[in-house]
Records
---
Amino acid sequence: YIAREALAVAQAKVGDIAGAQKTLNLMHQSSAVKSIAQDALVTAQAKAGDLAGAQKTADLISDAHYKKNAQQTVSNHRRWAAQDLAEAGDIVGAQKAVDLIQDAQGKNGAWESIAIAQARLGDIAAAQKTADQIQNDTNHNKDRAEGTIGTSQYEMVETQIDSGDLAGAQKTASQIQVAFYKNGAQGLIVQAQAKAGDMAGALKTADSI
């Protein structure tokens, strides 16, 4: 039994998924030994892009420790897939990938990646909506997402000021949720108003910081 486990692990590590599955099928009893081989197979399947197969294998693991490890492997690969899709501009595909992630922290990491991608694409409203999906933020995923959103909004204010659109800049600044970026954007507006000779407006904006 141990020899078969070792063989299945070796097959999985070299990417022989079919061979590993065949070897596992010969190990009829659920056990910690079989779970080790199944965990290795999950990693191989995930690396090969077969996340559905990896999830199916993970669900069959009987040992709690190896099952948790395998589930985490699947979650990590789904999160990375969502991130890749988001960075490629496929937001819908990324959101579908998130729906398949089972653990909360994995979902949070994926939502962070999508929110950042949306912010960089200029879709601030969608980015903020995505960031709001993040719950129990122990890894500060929402903080990082909102930091990128704030940066994008700050840069938008700069662009609007440079084009002479002070009203648009003020509207954008008013929507920034992170105080650091909001204050910075309002500071730019104060400078622009003063430069344009609108001292009353500059003082009013300065008082709001």
---
Amino acid sequence: SSTQAAAQDVADAKEIATDNLISAAQSAKDAIDTTNSEEGYNTLSQAEAAGDAAIESANSYLESANSSLELAESNLEIATTLNSSASQALVDAQEALDSATAANEDTADEEAALQSAHEAATAAESSLQSAQTALETAQAEVADATSTLQSANNLRDAIESQTDEAVAQDNQDALESATAAAQAQAASNAASSTQAAAQDVADAKEIAT
């Protein structure tokens, strides 16, 4: 139906948009700069934002694909029912013509009805085939959307891991710097204490002398 076709078009558009966002997220991941600078920090936040955008789009794509699939399943059920009805109508029209012919009656109306039944059955069969094709397309779309969402999740996890590693390294560097500074201060304090004690000894000797 036109509604299902429109839903499929929406899913297709979201597929393209999601693929583009995943590509952008991958580029942002590749561009991550772990140097301690404003530019480096920006690459971390940009990569995480790109990963989140890809996830959001992939979820929306999957939702649209599922909606298209639901409509396709409903349309196939309707088309199957209509095809069955049209097939039965064709059988009935043929029987009506056979009866009129056997009774030596004018069969113009029965022949016209049979022709109409043939046309209706052909149209119903075509609609059924179209519905089956649409269902297969929608099923493939859902499979692709599911795979795309998994890819987006994997990419975001990889970005998160990379940014977490950068932050952890910065924290480690800061801890090591703080430890080194504390040790230097302790050494300085010890040296000052030693010098003060030496000065006290010198002062005492001065007095004694």
---
Amino acid sequence: AEDGIRDDLVTGVQTCALPISGRPVIFAGTHFGVNRLFPVWLARQGIELLSLEGGDRMKKLAIPVPETLSTFELTSGFPAQATLAALRKLQAGGCINITAERMKGFDQQSSQRDWPGLSMQFLLGLPNLSLGSGASILPYFCTLQHRGRVRVEIKPPIRPPTEVARVGTPAREQQVERLVDEFDTVFRAEVERTPGNLRTIDRKPPG
């Protein structure tokens, strides 16, 4: 394929049936492997996707993307305008893509998890969007294989609770942290499986 991702190297793709059925879905990536390719690959499967990104690198590199992919450039942290755009998309039964964790230099809208030698920061925009829309979170990983090929793996969904607590309450904070914990567990497991794909440059130590 033009994006270097071979269809026969894709696993877990059955979960992609969720957005086709009209259910809201949040595809959640990380600074891991070549996850930047995922939104383009997914859009080429015919799935309409709103991708929230720090910058539209494909546009800057003059790389053509499918009409099914729309990019919302984040100017700082997780601004309210991006949140509203994402919520509208999800509440209409659509799909969005977001990077769930950030390296050093993040704002206070994040939750820290300390790994051996590393401090991981998970953006609270991910769990809040899930709770605000009822959307399932689908973690994904694009890992490098032999000869420059890429393996795409979409993990089982992380689902929000059926009864969502009111914003600003201790119960809501607990629900947010639970979703972060679940994503952290999935991310850690993938890093342990394929540690060479983790980007460690610019990450800060715990503490």
